[in-house]
Automatic annotation (TrEMBL):
Its EC number is 2.7.1.148. The active site is at residues 8, 132. Keywords: ATP-binding, Isoprene biosynthesis, Kinase, Nucleotide-binding, Transferase. PANTHER family: 4-DIPHOSPHOCYTIDYL-2-C-METHYL-D-ERYTHRITOL KINASE, CHLOROPLASTIC. ATP binds at residues 90-100. Pathway: Isoprenoid biosynthesis; isopentenyl diphosphate biosynthesis via DXP pathway; isopentenyl diphosphate from 1-deoxy-D-xylulose 5-phosphate: step 3/6. GO terms for molecular function: 4-(cytidine 5'-diphospho)-2-C-methyl-D-erythritol kinase activity; ATP binding. The gene is ispE. It comes from Mucilaginibacter corticis. This is 4-diphosphocytidyl-2-C-methyl-D-erythritol kinase. InterPro entries: GHMP_kinase_C_dom (IPR013750), GHMP_kinase_C_sf (IPR036554), GHMP_kinase_N_dom (IPR006204), IspE (IPR004424), Ribosomal_Su5_D2-typ_SF (IPR020568), Ribsml_uS5_D2-typ_fold_subgr (IPR014721).
């Protein structure tokens, strides 16, 4: 059985406070986008993991799909599986690719072995694997809060716009990104701001990781500036970076951007 874990972008990201457990409380909008991995499981006589496509750093035991298998195995009598992941979502990009694989692995096991897990149960397993894994259980636009693993549904449909994503050749670790941020409370929640006209977003929707990351990697700041120069209505780094997205009118001429020497997606 096979499914196709999708990436996300963050529209706005406010890091509001440091928590006693070392994590941070935040608020963000998660928006699913069409860059996908392919994940397959086949019942087998022993657990195995192999991947193709982009190289995934770390050992097999550290892969979030394998961690997901052991988590489920504790509670359900499931047989070993052969896992194949075709990796296409850029890694360390702020696109949540590893988290998406973990959540889609839970979904796949639930379906394949008819485990009858409720959505709440799947969310609980996902939360144990990483803060933004839970989003990918349903993968629909949400306002996320606390560690980024509690949600409120929102109505947000950007399908009438052209969204482009630029991936500079830089990978940023999530914990490195958090270590450079000074948390601050916000005056107005993103849950309200997201309903303002999109043409206004650039005036008040921000990503708190940008300041510090832009200081250390000026080329990422340059990508965001280039997206605005090309006519973006809104542009931002996604999550902890390094990818940057721009939202454009469908009729925009993006040829200047496509000539840049960077990986470029229409999402
Ligand atoms: C920053 C965000 C924004 O959506 O995503 P990415 O941009 O990396 O995709 C998320 O908060 C990333 O979530 P995720 O990648 O699942 O984080 P985890 O694996 O649980 O944690 C990695 C490390 O990030 C830090 N961390 C993560 C989430 C959070 N709310 N506070 C934190 O301080 C902790 O240092 C933790 O050890
Ligand atoms: N299935 C997976 N795909 C990608 N990375 C994974 C996976 N499982 C574990 N990882 C680990 O997670 C790290 C960051 O993953 P990723 O989700 O791409 O980051 P980000 O959310 O910042 O884009 C990788 O460096 C890798 O070591």
């Amino acid at each position: 059985m096979i499914n196709f874990p999708n990436a996300k972008i963050n529209i706005g990201l406010n890091i509001t406070e440091r928590r006693p457990d070392g994590y941070h409380n935040l608020e963000t909008i998660f928006y699913p986008v069409k860059i996908n991995d392919a994940l397959e499981i086949i019942e087998s006589d022993k657990l195995s993991f192999e991947s193709s496509g982009l190289d995934i750093p770390g050992r097999m035991e550290d892969n979030l799909c394998v961690k997901g298998y052991y988590l489920i195995k504790k509670d359900f009598d499931v047989p070993p599986v052969k896992i194949h992941l075709h990796k296409n979502i850029p890694i360390g990009a702020g696109l949540g690719g590893g988290s998406a694989d973990a959540a889609f692995f839970i979904r796949l096991m639930n379906e394949k072995f008819e485990l009858d897990m409720t959505i709440d149960q799947q969310l609980d397993y996902a939360r144990k694997l990483g803060a933004d894994c839970a989003f990918f259980i349903e993968s629909k636009p949400v306002f996320a809060f606390e560690k980024g693993d509690e949600f409120e549904s929102i109505k947000l449909d950007l399908s009438s716009y052209e969204i482009v994503l630029v991936m500079p050749n830089i990978h940023i670790s999530t914990s490195e990104a958090y270590s450079g941020v000074k948390p601050a409370m916000v005056r107005q929640s993103l849950l309200e701001l997201i309903y303002e006209p999109i043409g206004e977003w650039k005036n008040f929707i921000k990503n708190d990781f940008e300041n510090n990351i832009f200081k250390n990697h000026v080329e990422i700041r340059g990508v965001k500036a280039a997206l605005y120069e090309a006519g973006a209505i809104y542009a931002s780094m996604s999550g902890s970076g390094a990818s940057v997205f721009g939202i454009f009118a469908k009729t925009s001429d993006l040829s200047a951007l496509e000539h840049d020497n960077q990986v470029f997606y229409h999402i």
